[in-house]
């Protein structure tokens, strides 16, 4: 994600969580977080459990979210170039950070209790953006949505038939001592059992709503969710079977070599052990080391869902 | 929806279905999602937001790891600029050594950066989440800070028992191996174990070695600048800790590779075996382009009162030496006195008081010591301190003042304070937190740092480029250490070194010896230890200087003796400079072949 993509992402996140944007530029947002966003982003579990227990009106935080540090700093420099004040302020702030850092080990910028607005830099890989990602995942795991019909074709007496689809966004991990990943999005029609790839992309071109639109009826499902899930998994598995597995072969070879090496090392030691105690200790070491090697090298393919949902789409698919 | 924690062995959730995909690999379907979806369908909700759903997919897609062997971590570390050898080392460890390696770069080439890159890469790929980092106690906070600030890795310093629950913990090995911590750690599976200063693990019989051996770990990095110090067995033990059997059994190793404990054989094979588990980068010989060192000696005539004290102390010391019939070893305390008198009256005073206390009550010495104290009483001003103040005002920039003596440090702090100059102290006895605090103050508000200690890790003062040697240690390595705090990688400016030098005293001789004969202050880094190694076969330079000072009849004799020492040193210096730079021992040659030569530029 580059700065522009991050900026767009953050804007949509703030919107989706009903946070109030107070100020924005192409390089930053100042936003009063909604309770939802505050819970997920501000690391204040004690505060929120207090609010829950007492029923107090929550006071959410206002944050400065910088999505393009360079641009932001040029902007602010230009804005307050005549004033020399902020640097001294920063010096004291930095000293305070350092002082807290000394007793706490390390403290992230937001905990500085000087009453300034928490400032977060959101570049790809930064911890706060990671939190946004996690929050999005938590709040966007399972959906049930209907396609919004196109107005023109809606005749008052005509009812459009909708089909239910199981949408599955999957992450496939190919791992040994190294790893790579793939994204697969599948849609399985619950009416016909047909399975399509690139499902999420095709959804993104449609407008979706959580409520059943007027003049729409849903076709009866012909297959169960369980069956649909199995169809999806099997389709993916067929596809993955056709891949090149030289990497796994290589990993297995390394695994065997490493196992042979430790065997060559430990077996004479165990045989020559002076007493049972030493022998048992050696045996234990040997087994631990073998387990470590398997843990490190064993090739595996893992499929897990990023998120999934039921989508009612126009037509019989 | 579970994270990809299913890498960890032993805790696979039951909703995972596994079957054979082909001859090489199984496929695991994590079906946690299905159960959850079914529940929400049964209860008709709650359903999540469509935008969040899309954002979640975008987030995951952006984090996707597209290939086995690129370096992903760089795109998340916009402010880090690793040097090329650090990147190539990280790649090698990741792709050729499968994450178990000894990082054996020479000091100052950034082993921590290399380890950080490797760790970050594994974390981004989801191959590592639980990490244990064991380092000497004095380095714990520095590691925590570097991992957090440079790598965005949320490492914490181990403080209490429950700290071990965190994902990335930095701790001292001495704490970790003790109860109750030991059992806690042995019951964990660590995706990665990193050990700094790993040469402390070269002896198999130590509890440290055995403890590390017992820890369960997937990937493992051992960091040390000196994988071999005395004995090839040390290297064997270190590698066995990392990968038992890599060099065969102990007897195989002895038979295949060892002639004598310091002399290897079958060098090619040994080197090949080493290069599969160890990376060692060395500084280039020609390419070290540090900024310049500009040395200025500042000769200072003593005031009449100070000169009187100096002469009195010199007389006192020489009388005691003559009484002792030339037994100079018992006289070293007196040498200190002679040196302190060049620093400040406060330093002399403290030593005299201690000496007074140790002397028997009826000894005639007590009266003599008292006489010296009278000389001290007469001194009203400190010539060096006044000059120092003048220098500081002139340079109007951050400056470090080094002194050998605690009392001088205290005196200077008070003296500066009374002249409205903010100075902070730094000394060896301070605990870690206080040292860090002093460093932060110096970095921030204080113009002056007054230090009695230059050794020890973690004081990196590249932001400052003025040093005042208020007095000089007689051990050249300690002088080099002082300068090295400032004149190191990352220093942008030429470093200005001021040596205060009182005329007509032993100090004058020392400054001329260190400066003119050894050219210490301008020596290429690393050259000094070679010279001293040869010079100090029996006695150290410090001892020989003391001897010269005590035995010399008068100042002409002293000048000659010191000048002889100087000639020997400068002779060795030429010798060292002429030799070609091939590493001296066969072990060294092999180690040096495992890696590349790095031309370091600040």
TrEMBL record, chain A:
Pfam families per the UniProt record, alphabetical: YqhG
Highest taxon, organism lineage: Bacteria
Record protein name field: Uncharacterized protein
Organism encoding this protein: Paenibacillus phyllosphaerae
From TrEMBL, chain B:
UniProt keyword annotation of ATP-binding present: yes
Keywords carried by this UniProt record: ATP-binding, Helicase, Hydrolase, Nucleotide-binding
Residue ranges occupied by any Helicase ATP-binding domain in the UniProt entry: 92-245
InterPro entries for this protein: DEXDc_RapA, Helicase_ATP-bd, Helicase_C-like, P-loop_NTPase, SNF2-like_sf, SNF2/RAD54-like_C, SNF2_N
SUPFAM superfamilies on file: P-loop containing nucleoside triphosphate hydrolases
Superkingdom of source: Bacteria
Pfam families membership: Helicase_C (PF00271), SNF2-rel_dom (PF00176)
A GO molecular-function annotation: hydrolase activity
Domain Helicase C-terminal stretches: 384-539
UniProt keyword Heme, yes or no: no
Protein name per UniProt: SNF2 family DNA or RNA helicase
Source species: Paenibacillus phyllosphaerae
């Amino acid at each position: 994600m580059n700065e522009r993509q991050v900026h767009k992402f953050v804007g949509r996140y703030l919107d989706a969580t009903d946070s109030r944007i107070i100020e924005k530029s192409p390089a930053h947002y100042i936003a009063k977080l909604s309770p939802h966003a505050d819970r997920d982003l501000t690391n204040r579990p004690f505060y929120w459990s207090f609010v829950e227990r007492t029923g107090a009106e929550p006071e959410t935080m206002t944050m400065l979210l910088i999505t393009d540090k360079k641009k932001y700093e040029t902007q602010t420099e230009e804005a307050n170039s005549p004033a020399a004040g902020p640097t001294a302020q920063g010096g004291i702030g930095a000293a305070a950070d350092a002082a807290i850092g000394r007793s706490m080990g390390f403290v992230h910028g937001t905990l500085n209790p000087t009453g300034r607005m928490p400032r977060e830099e959101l570049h790809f890989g930064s911890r706060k953006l990671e939190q946004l990602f996690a929050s999005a995942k938590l709040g966007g795991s399972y959906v049930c949505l209907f396609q919004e019909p196109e107005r023109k074709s809606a005749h008052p007496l005509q009812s459009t038939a909708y089909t239910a689809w199981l949408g599955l966004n999957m992450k496939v991990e190919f791992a040994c001592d190294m790893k790579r990943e793939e994204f697969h999005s599948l849609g399985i029609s619950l009416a016909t059992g047909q399975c399509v790839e690139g499902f999420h992309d095709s959804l993104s071109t449609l407008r979706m709503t959580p409520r059943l639109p007027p003049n729409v009826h849903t076709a009866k499902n012909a297959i169960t969710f369980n069956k649909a899930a199995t169809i999806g998994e099997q389709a993916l598995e067929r596809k993955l079977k056709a891949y090149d597995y030289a990497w796994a072969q290589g990993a297995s070879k390394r695994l065997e070599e490493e196992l042979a090496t430790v065997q060559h090392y430990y077996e004479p030691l165990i045989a020559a052990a002076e007493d049972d105690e030493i022998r048992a200790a050696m045996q234990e070491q040997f087994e631990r080391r073998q387990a470590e090697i398997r843990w490190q090298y064993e090739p595996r393919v893992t499929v897990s869902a990023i998120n999934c949902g039921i989508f009612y789409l126009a037509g019989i698919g | 929806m579970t994270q990809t924690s299913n890498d960890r062995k032993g805790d696979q959730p039951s909703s995972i279905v596994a079957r054979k995909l082909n001859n090489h690999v199984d496929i695991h379907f994590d079906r946690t999602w299905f159960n959850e979806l079914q529940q929400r369908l049964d209860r008709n909700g709650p359903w999540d937001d469509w935008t969040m759903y899309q954002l979640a997919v975008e987030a995951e897609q952006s984090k996707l790891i597209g290939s086995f062997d690129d370096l992903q971590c760089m795109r998340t570390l916009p402010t880090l600029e690793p040097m090329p050898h650090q990147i190539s080392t990280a790649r090698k460890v990741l792709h050729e050594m499968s994450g178990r390696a000894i990082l054996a770069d020479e000091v100052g080439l950034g082993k921590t950066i290399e380890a950080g890159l490797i760790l970050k890469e594994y974390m981004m790929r989801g191959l590592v989440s639980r990490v244990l980092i064991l380092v000497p106690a004095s380095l714990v906070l520095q590691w925590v800070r570097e991992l957090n600030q440079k790598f965005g890795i949320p490492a914490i310093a181990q403080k209490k028992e429950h700290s071990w629950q965190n994902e990335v913990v930095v701790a001292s090995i001495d704490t970790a191996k003790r109860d109750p911590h030991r059992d806690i750690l042995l019951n964990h599976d660590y995706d990665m174990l990193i050990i700094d200063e790993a040469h402390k693990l070269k002896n198999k019989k130590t509890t440290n070695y055995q403890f590390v051996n017992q820890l369960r770990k997937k990937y493992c990095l051992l960091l040390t600048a000196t994988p071999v110090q005395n004995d090839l067995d040390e290297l064997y033990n270190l590698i066995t800790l990392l990968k038992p059997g890599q060099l065969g059994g102990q007897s195989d190793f002895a038979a295949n590779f060892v002639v004598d404990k310091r002399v290897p054989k079958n060098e090619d094979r040994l080197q090949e075996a080493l290069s599969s588990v160890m990376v060692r980068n060395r500084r280039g010989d020609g390419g070290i382009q540090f900024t310049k060192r500009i040395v200025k000696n500042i000769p200072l005539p003593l005031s009449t009162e100070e000169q009187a004290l100096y002469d009195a102390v010199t007389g006192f010391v020489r009388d005691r030496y003559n009484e002792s019939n030339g037994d100079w070893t018992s006289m070293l305390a007196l040498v200190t006195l002679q040196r302190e008198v060049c620093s400040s009256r406060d330093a002399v005073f403290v030593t005299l008081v201690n000496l007074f206390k140790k002397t028997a009550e009826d000894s005639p010495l007590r009266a003599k010591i008292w006489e010296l104290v009278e000389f001290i009483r007469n001194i009203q001003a400190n010539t060096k301190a006044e000059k120092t103040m003048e220098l500081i005002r002139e340079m109007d920039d951050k400056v470090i003042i080094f002194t050998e003596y605690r009392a001088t440090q205290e005196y200077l702090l008070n003296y500066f304070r009374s002249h409205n100059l903010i100075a902070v102290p730094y000394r060896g006895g301070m605990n870690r937190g206080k040292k860090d605090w002093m460093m932060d103050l110096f970095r921030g508000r204080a113009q002056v740092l007054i230090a009695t200690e230059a050794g020890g890790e973690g004081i990196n003062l590249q932001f400052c480029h003025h040093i005042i040697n208020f007095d000089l240690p007689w051990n050249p390595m300690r002088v080099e250490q002082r300068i090295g705090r400032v004149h190191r990688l990352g220093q942008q400016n030429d470093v200005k070194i001021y040596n205060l030098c009182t005329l007509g005293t032993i100090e004058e001789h020392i400054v001329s010896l260190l400066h003119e004969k050894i050219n210490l202050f301008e020596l290429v880094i690393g050259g000094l230890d070679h010279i001293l190694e040869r010079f100090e076969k029996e006695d150290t330079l410090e001892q020989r200087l003391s001897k010269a000072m005590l035995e010399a009849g008068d100042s002409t004799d002293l000048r000659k003796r010191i000048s002889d020492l100087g000639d020997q040193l400068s002779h060795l210096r030429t010798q060292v400079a002429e030799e070609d730079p091939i590493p001296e021992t066969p072990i060294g040659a092999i180690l040096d072949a495992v890696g590349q030569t790095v031309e370091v530029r600040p």
